[in-house]
Design brief:
Blueprint: E1 7-9, E2 18-22, E3 27-30, E4 39-41, H1 42-47
Antiparallel strand pairs: 1-4, 2-3
The structure holds zinc ion (ZN).
Length: 65
């Protein structure tokens, strides 16, 4: 994994991109913080990664007055 300037390893999954959901079942799923990337830039590390939420700001149709 190559970290560029301003990027940090995801502490939640320790850079693996996977988090263990259930210790007993050893079930792992995609890390909800970095979305499987294993790394975040510094602002994503603080506020979380955007882009998968339903509250998208890319819909320009609602801004027509
Ligand atoms: Zn992660």
């Amino acid at each position: 994994m190559n970290l560029t300037l301003g990027e940090v390893k995801c502490k939640r999954c320790k850079g693996r991109g996977l988090v263990r959901v259930n210790l007993r079942d050893k079930l792992e799923c995609m890390c909800p913080k970095c979305w499987g990337d294993g790394k975040l830039d510094w602002i994503e590390n603080v506020i979380g990664r955007r882009g998968f939420s339903s509250s998208s700001d890319s819909t320009g149709s609602s801004s027509n007055w």
